[in-house]
Design goal:
Elements: H1 2-9, H2 14-20, H3 25-31, E1 39-41, H4 50-59, E2 67-71, H5 85-94, E3 100-104, E4 123-127, H6 143-146, H7 151-161, E5 172-176, H8 183-189, E6 197-201, H9 208-211
Parallel strand pairs: 1-2, 2-3, 3-4, 4-5, 5-6
């Protein structure tokens, strides 16, 4: 019975699941069952690249996904961009029930702010990650402004976002060994109305003034 096969497949990790889908057409169909993609942990798969992430979001991840754990390339010799805005946008569209995101050793400095993350997130955990200065701000400096775009263009961008207050659903934020987290980041978090829990470990750049 297919239910028993799905139970057996549930013991496989993501890499093994993808390989199992190559056995036959039936297994290929079963491997895409969303019951197998409810909690996805990619932290043990050290060879994950942006190409693999696109494969997952296009063929496997869907409405069943609740928790996603990723390991970035911050400590990898290859380096390079791991998470892109376009991939995160696709993830948000394909996985409307994603509630928890865990990022390990991920360089987030190529992203403008947390606003590009899935809006359904309730729990966000960052471990050993690098953050841009305005990552937690509701009104981060735009790329156009940072690159010296014309004032008229910056004004249009500001007007475009005006009148639409951002709703932040994140209730729990965990930062573990994030040395780039500063007083400015902490100040930005005071505007998160839904935030109920904040865990800070090894955030060395925080000062006593920032904690007051």
């Amino acid at each position: 019975p297919e239910n028993i096969l799905i139970d057996v497949l549930s013991f496989l990790n993501v890499r093994e699941l993808i390989r199992a889908g190559r056995v036959c057409k039936k297994w290929k169909r079963l491997v895409k069952d969303q019951r197998l993609w409810r909690n996805v942990d990619l932290t043990s798969w050290k060879g994950v690249t942006s190409r693999i992430l696109w494969l997952l979001v296009r063929q496997y991840l869907g409405c069943g996904l609740r928790c996603l754990r990723l390991r970035g390339l911050l400590l990898s010799a290859r380096g390079g961009t791991f998470l892109s805005e376009s991939w995160l946008k696709s993830l948000s569209a394909k996985c409307p029930r994603l509630g928890k995101l865990y990022l390990l050793h991920t360089d987030l400095r190529s992203l403008p702010s947390f606003q590009v993350l899935p809006p359904t997130l309730v729990v966000l955990e960052l471990c050993g990650c690098e953050l841009p200065r305005d990552f937690f701000s509701k009104t981060p400096s735009s790329h156009a402004e940072a690159s010296g775009a014309a004032p008229q263009q910056r004004t249009k961008q500001k007007r475009k976002g005006a009148g639409h207050p951002l709703r932040i659903a994140i209730e729990r934020l965990v930062l573990n060994n994030v040395p780039s987290f500063t007083d400015q980041h902490l100040q930005s978090l005071t505007s998160w109305d839904s935030l109920r829990g904040l865990v800070l470990r090894d955030t060395f750049r925080l000062t006593a003034n920032g904690l007051r």
